[in-house]
Amino acid sequence: MAEFQTAPAGAGAGQKLLTWVDNRFPLSKLYKEHLSEYYAPKNFNIWYVFGGLATLVLVMQILTGIFLTMHYKPDAAKAFESVEYIMRDVPWGWLVRYMHSTGASAFFIVVYLHMFRGLIYGSYRKPRELVWLFGCGIFLCLMAEAFMGYLLPWGQMSYWGAQVIVNLFSAVPFIGPDLSLLIRGDFVVGDATLNRFFSFHVIAVPLVLLGLVAAHIIALHEVGSNNPDGVEIKATKDPKTGIPLDGIPFHPYFTVHDIFVATVFLFIFSAVLFFAPEGGGYFLEFNNFIEANPLKTPLHIAPVWYFTPYYSMLRATTDLMVNILAGLLALGAVLAILRGGFGAMAKIAIAIVAIAAVAALKTFDAKFWGVVIMGGAVMILFFLPWLDRSPVKSIRYRPDWHKYLYALFVIFFLVLGYLGSQPPSAAGNYVSQIGTLIYFGFFLLMPWWSRVGTFKPVPERVTFAAH
Questions:
Q1: Phi and psi dihedrals of 369, rounded to 5?
Q2: Distance CA 282, CA 267 (A)
Q3: Short-list 105, 71, 86, 418, CA closest to 284
Q4: How far, in Å, are 95, 107, 280, 320 from residue 102 at the CA level?
Q5: Which residues have CB under 8 Å from 428's CB, separation 6+?
Q6: Exposed/middle/buried for 381, CB within 10 Å: 0-12, 13-18, 19+?
Q7: What are phi and psi of 244, to 5 degrees?
């Protein structure tokens, strides 16, 4: 058992209370390890504020969600009315509801920007692989949380969006129909589905999400933060104190910085909240102000904007797309066998795998492969630390044409998002197919293109100019 500390002679009541707590809980130790003595690179830029903003929005979503559950009724016959009651009769209920619905979009905006920062500065590279994996797990939980929460208002788009997405699972071979039935809890989306989604949205997924957020922060503080130069500040320390020469305490320097950024964010968020909470129909669809009607299908069913890039990939997966993928796979296998320099056994293995993959592509229908591609678009992010073979981390020191490749990736991701929110069309389908190929090509070809080009020398110390 550790020895108890005693407060210094003449200490005030506050110091005595802190000493009493420290003897029973490592409060001061945690404060030092994660704030005052956690040294972050001094060359952080604006891209490094989105992690803190994501934490702020998470807290806001939890608090507003608690107040909403006080008045919401997870019953198919009363859910829509309870939301209307919150909006019209509960004091400030409209504000809490809009904070929660608009906050969901704000959450995904800051998370997408946070992930993009990690992408361009190589924050997923060694030794931060676990930090990235925990972050991808958080992203998956957010998607599940948003999807389940979207059904709860029991509006037209909520109901039919859930109907479409859950029915996608029926495309899984052999177990699909049973899997869809298990998720719905009934043969159609109904009261059982609403209760299941409410339970997961309010209890199960948030618990997993909070655990992953804690693991994400602990893993980050164990290895230290990355920076725009991709230089490890722990490699250059003061020989006497052991403090990184290019690091400064997170508190008070970056906490003050983050408070300022959070204030600016809250001003912008408040402006949207009070003047355009529906976001022109992107944050909260107009059809969701109409009660769910199983007998009347909306003219156009589309998910919320943060799901639309993946929904666009799903719709782009036609028989033609599957045939193109099969042809590319066969061509890649032939080239690997002819020019890859593999041994005889390796060539046979490549041929067998390629034949099996092409046979699978031709055996199952396009709907199934659409589900696979939609899920694969998210799951491929987990493999990013091992796909990137670049000798440098940061985009600052990569060849200039790499920047254009990242820009192309972002542009087509945004285009996919826009097309996913629009009614299907022939031209839009072709563009979506091109965007899908570019999205997967960006990652699958990364082991090759990330090593190509002339790289700039990386400095030994971070580059920093006071401002």
A1: -70, -30
A2: 20
A3: 105
A4: 10, 9, 12, 38
A5: 419, 422
A6: buried
A7: -60, 130
Instruction: Please tell me the distance from the alpha carbon of residue 391 to that of residue 451, in angstroms, as a whole number.
Output: 7
Residue type, position 319, single letter: D
Secondary structure (3-state) at 155: strand
List, in sequence order, every residue forming a beta bridge with 291; answer none if it has no partner.
Answer: 155
The Cβ-side half-sphere exposure at 459, using a 13 Å CA radius, reads 10
DSSP string of 75-92?
A: -TTTHHHHHHHHHHTSTT
Please report how many Cα atoms fall inside a 13 Å half-sphere around the Cα of residue 273, on the Cβ side: 18
Q: Note the pLDDT tens digit of each residue in 171-201.
A: 888 888 999 999 999 888 999 999 999 999 9
Which parts of the chain sit beneath pLDDT 70? 1-2, 339-342, 466-467
Tokens in use for 289? 């102000």
Of residues 126, 108, 127, the one with CA closest to residue 116: 108
- Separation of first and last alpha carbons in the chain: 49
Instruction: Say which residue the tokens 């990364």 belong to.
Output: 446
Condensed to tens digits (0 to 9), the pLDDT of residues 108-164 reads 999 999 999 999 999 999 999 999 999 999 999 999 999 999 999 999 999 999 998
pLDDT of residue 327: 78
Burial (CB < 10 A; 0-12, 13-18, 19+), residue 230, is buried
The closest alpha carbon to 104, from 376, 307, 300, belongs to 307
**CB 286, CB 155: distance < 8 Å:** no
Residues in contact with 353: Cβ distance below 8 Å, sequence separation at least 6, in sequence order = 333
| Distance (Å, whole) CA 59 – CA 206 | 11
Is residue 416 within 8 Å of 308, Cβ to Cβ? yes
Helical segments of 278-396, H only: 308-316, 319-339, 344-363, 366-379, 384-387
With beta carbons less than 8 A apart as the criterion, state whether 455 and 397 touch: yes
* Alpha carbons within 13 A on the beta-carbon side of 90: 19
R_g (Cα) of the chain, nearest Å: 25
Cα(166)–Cα(154) distance, integer angstroms: 15
CA–CA distance, 384 with 282 (Å, rounded to integer): 30
pLDDT at 348: 84
Torsion, CA 255, CA 256, CA 260, CA 263, rounded to 10: 60
Nearest to 296 by CA among 100, 127, 464, 159: 159
Quick one: which of 328, 383, 375 has its CA closest to 354?
328
pLDDT at residue 340 in the model: 57
Interatomic CA distance for residues 458 and 121, integer angstroms: 13
- What residues contact 110, with CB distance under 8 A and at least 6 apart? 50, 53, 54, 57
